[in-house]
Amino acid sequence: MIVHVLACDYDGTIADDGRLAPETAAVLARVRESGRKLFLVTGRMLDDLKGVCPDVDRVFDLIVAENGGLLYIPDRREIRRLGDAPEPALIEALQRRGVPFDLGAAILATTAAYSEAALAAIREAGVERTLVFNKGALMLLPGGVTKGTGLAAALDLAQLSARNLAGVGDAENDHAFLSMCECAAAVADAVPALRERADVVTSAAGAAGAREFAEQHVLRDLADLTARLARHDLKIGEDVAGAPVGVGAHGTHMLVVGPSATGKTSLTAALLEQLIDAGRSACLIDPEGDCRTLSDLQHVIVMGGRGEHALPTPDELGQLLGRPGQSLVLDLSALSRAEKVTYATKVLATANAVRGTRGVPHWLIIDEAHHIFPAEGSQAMDLLPVGTESFCLITLGVEHLPREVVDRIDAIASTDLDAFRRTTAAAFGRHVHGLRLPTGAPLERGEAAIAWRDADRSAVRLRVSARRIEHRRHIRKYTEGELPPDRSFYFRGPEQALNLRAANLARFVELAEGVDEGTWAHHLRAGDYSGWIEEMIKDADLAAEIRPLEQDSLPPSESRQRVIEAIRRRYAV
What we know:
The chain is α/β, with parallel strands linked by helices. The protein is 36% helix and 19% strand. The protein has an eleven-stranded mixed β-sheet. The longest helix is centred in the middle third of the chain and has 22 residues, at 337-358.
């Protein structure tokens, strides 16, 4: 399920002339009965809201009032002020100017006709207040407070993700909270700027439009709208023309195939970084411990492995997977093959249960998927997500997976052209057309090809997105730590006259800057620098950048400078 929260503006959206009609209340009740939460996000003060909508405590799970300045928890009758109280100096300045206003917990409310006088009062009082217009109304809000900040506080309290949020509004002050929504709707008579930015505009105005959105889209979990939500696509690279290539955030069932050491991990990391950047969460099952280098990505926790943190119990899994914006990598390398299948089955069952109630994790990623879904089948197969829930499987080749799993795949990416053609033919029952490649031209390092089961979409050759967040474990270990002697670099020179050991990248750069040109050139011509970086530092991309410098006829001083600059661009040395 995509939508777990519906956030609604009040006046002009679910309420006409300040009143919540019975037919609208009935539709909102159906939203809550479907298992979804209902948040009200309004500019009204709480007492005023309760005066025009006496059932407000019964209708809504959480209420953001005063345009984000106040959070009200109905089932506890608890009020939390989210901004500073109106300053006495500002109140006095408004009174001196004859500005009529209502005093709230955090806001001062007047009409748009007094905007100039209100601004002058703010300047005179020397306080930080923002003027926010809502059609004919004007609110003086604490600095930084919007409907968006208030809604974010409500989501934090409920421990729900904005990536599972749909919203509907009508006025200028609704921009802030609708911009947070996975799907944003504007009613037909909303202000033009809001209609232009919305994902969907209802055909009906006011409360009838809000009912339309709830009934036709929210209760159907955006079934007819996911294709419109391309703004949420996860960019994994660029095509030959530089255009972004992405996969849908919702309902993508992806398979990544290719031989070892061809870049599958880089493609997986690009996908995970996109998920993190978008505020989404993932659960990555790592049977062989190949993904531990993701441990220092922001909002990623790695558990398991040999001699590392123990794998979480099912109860602990439920807590870890239910945290919005946090991703979990589970290293199963210390388990036997049978134990991996058993534990992964528990993970999938727990993830499905948490997804059903909380909407997270948004993606399941399974590396070395043939361990969990072997060709002969396993107990885990029935737990693979369907519908709008997304997953990505990584394996050597499609022949290693059972047919029941392959039939659920709708997108195939590969870092090897032969594997790509073989897999698309086996999985989709046809050879993929539209991928224009020179005959026999292999995919280069850092490239991939992707095709979709949908025959109307052409296959694409792409350059995988460069990782913006490098392996920070590598950065710490290889820049400041100490590699063992057999993995260190030794500057020896053509006559073996030296024995200068570089046990990390910082020491390598220090020594590289000081050795004589003959020693530098000797190791350069032998390809020692790229070889060490690829084999011992485990950074194939940096090695690929340095290798052409070793094959060029640059003067030693220039090649030395370029190699050191390449290292410093990627590592803090």
